[in-house]
Write a structure and sequence with these properties.
Organism: Amphibalanus amphitrite (Striped barnacle)
InterPro entries: AKR, Aldo/ket_reductase_CS, NAD(P)_OxRdtase_dom_sf, NADP_OxRdtase_dom, TPR-like_helical_dom_sf
GO molecular function, one term: oxidoreductase activity
Number of domains: 2
Pfam families: Aldo_ket_red
Protein name: Aldose reductase
Strand content: 5-15%
CATH topology of the largest domain: TIM Barrel
CATH class of the largest domain: Alpha Beta
Order of helices and strands: HHHHHHEEEHEHEEEHEHEHEHHHEHHH
Number of strands: 11
Number of helices: 17
Radius of gyration: 25 Å
CATH superfamily of the largest domain: NADP-dependent oxidoreductase domain
Shape: elongated
């Protein structure tokens, strides 16, 4: 369910002169802008000016009640309840009308009321309304545009992507389709994930809906970190251990990736799990510099040195395991290893910040990163979680929040994902990152 409100247009009195009408429209635009920025107090003040001589305007009154609700920290107050009751009585809204809704404004009133109930944790009542009006309201709700970062080749890469690790084909297909229809425009996969066909099916289904164009979607995939030799096994094993190709030449591989760009087979190339030294090695020999570096990064392991180096060379920075990598635990347990990993989602500081903003711990962990222009790729196959993880741009952490979260950094000791745990024997390779 969408957890944001729809604002109404200002309705002008027929007695309003032209100048007054224009002034009201300007105020209305400003009120909406302040609301979207989270400046709810300013929004309320502007709406009070608008409602001063339009007390009978139900939609304006509703906007004002919504803004006051947010200003008060999404808490149910007596004044808010009275205002809401008066609005619904004036609009003559009745439960039985849910079955025969025809006008858009009434539908939006019901929708906003459902969102209020949702924030008040009256989930059953909220879902009851939404289930009945979804066929009317869905076409009115456009997914929020996800901000992008500009790569060093001029292309745009969305700050939010869907991670696809450990999602089987059919599950990942459904997840990719749901994410794209919810506003995501960045999908992260890899050959190693063994689900690229499912990712393709999900993209195809989303495009078939008519709501998404292929040209809008940024797809990331990765070479397997072992199989770099054409014509050879991608994962060569012997006696249960991975056989290392100790002749791996990073520069030769990068030159081949540059050739893929020249052939038009890819638009951007980057690196993942590279050390600072390895990135510098590529930069010293590249015709096309890496556009992106993707590594583990979260509040416990904030990668300060790597991020600074990437910033110096205009390399975009993508975080995986932003939520602490529950996927790594699942992966290792499948391989028969018992592990205990840090629980970022239940960190007391993270939870306090989440409560302050009435957000989930996951949203806070992700917002902490995107607010620093770090690209995030949280993984989920659950539609509601995908939407929830994507709701990162309707709120902002203040400097107190950011400072508290920065203090959680443990440096290298905070690293959770280690290649030698995921790929036994890989630490024997001279280019092994960790």
């Amino acid at each position: 369910m969408y957890a944001t409100f729809l604002f109404f247009r200002v309705t002008m009195s027929s007695k309003s002169d032209k100048n007054s009408g224009n002034s009201d429209k300007e105020l209305a635009v400003k009120a909406k802008s302040e609301f979207n920025k989270g400046n709810y107090g300013n929004c309320v003040q502007i709406l009070e000016k608008l409602t001063a001589d339009k007390s009978c305007d139900v939609k304006l009154a509703h906007n004002k009640a919504v803004a006051e609700f947010y200003k008060g920290g999404l808490k149910k107050t007596e004044s808010f309840q009275k205002a809401l009751k008066a609005i619904f009585e004036k609009a003559k809204l009745r439960p039985e009308r849910l079955e025969t809704l025809e006008d858009v404004d009434t539908c939006v009133l019901y929708y906003n009321y459902a969102v209020i109930l949702y924030h008040l944790r009256q989930y059953r009542a909220a879902l009851g309304i939404v289930s009945k009006i979804s066929r009317y309201i869905e076409p009115l709700v456009e997914p929020a545009m996800v901000p992008s970062v500009e790569l060093n080749n001029g292309r745009k890469m969305p700050l939010l992507g869907l991670g696809c690790w450990q999602a089987p084909g059919d599950e990942v297909a459904a997840a990719v389709e749901a994410a794209l229809l919810a506003g995501y425009r960045h999908i992260d996969t890899a050959y190693n994930y063994l689900n690229e066909d499912g990712v393709g099916r999900g993209i195809k289904a989303a495009i078939a809906s008519g709501k998404v164009k292929r040209s809008d979607i940024f797809v990331v995939t990765k070479l397997p970190n072992i199989g770099m030799q054409a014509g050879k096994d991608v994962f060569p094993f012997e006696n249960g251990k991975l056989l290392m190709d100790f002749s791996t030449d990073l520069i030769a591989i990068w030159k081949e990736m540059e050739r893929m760009v020249s052939l038009g087979l890819t638009k951007s190339i980057g690196v993942s799990n590279f050390t600072v030294k390895q990135v510098r090695k590529i930069l010293a020999n590249a015709k096309i510099p890496p556009a992106v570096q993707q590594v583990e990064c979260h509040v416990y392991f904030q990668q300060t040195e790597m991020r600074e180096m990437c910033k110096q060379h205009n390399i975009a920075f993508t975080s995986y395991s932003s939520l602490g990598s529950p996927g790594s635990k699942m992966f290792m347990e499948k391989m028969g290893m018992k592990v205990e990993l840090p629980d970022l989602l239940n960190n007391p500081v993270v939870r306090l910040v989440a409560e302050k903003h009435n957000r989930t711990a996951a949203q806070v962990l992700l917002r902490f990163l995107v607010q620093q222009d770090i690209i995030v790729i949280p993984k989920s196959v659950k539609v509601e979680r995908i939407k929830q993880n994507g709701d990162l741009f309707s709120f902002k952490l203040d400097e107190v929040d950011m400072g508290a979260l920065r203090l959680l950094d443990q440096g290298e000791a905070g690293r959770i994902v280690r290649m030698k745990d995921l790929f036994p024997n890989s630490d024997m390779h001279p280019e092994a990152p960790h």
